[in-house]
Fold this sequence. Notes:
Elements: H1 14-27, H2 31-46, H3 55-86, E1 91-95, H4 106-112, H5 116-122, E2 126-130, E3 134-138
Antiparallel strand pairs: 1-3, 2-3
Helix pairs in contact: 1-2
Amino acid sequence: MSREDSQFKLRMPPELREKIEESAKLAKRSLNAEIVARLEESQFRTGKPTELPQASKAREMAAVSRRKMAAAIRSEILSALQYAISQGLSEAPVDLGGFSLDELNEHEFEDVFLEIYPELTAAGYGYEWDKRHTLHIDFSSPE
């Protein structure tokens, strides 16, 4: 950002500011840079792009999308576990067919599951893939 960029005051609830500050820390950028990046991403996603974004910006936006995908997948895992436990099962199949996992290269795929795999392992779960559509989470064996 340059000093010539326009400035304006922004009011937001303290809880929202805390969440965005945390995201900014994770992304290693300032609060202002985080807000600007989110607005740019939103504009690119929902508007009709008229300019080709720089490749570095495209990589950054794709990484943000992968982090969002990881959070959504984690939520699906929790729902599947909740259902399996409530039904007395010892395995939870997680249907991830609604995500574009087949289109990710190996690095992008691993990026999505970077935090999910260690969390499952640390909690004592086993897991196995049925292609890239169904993640089977097993909790039948004691640790």
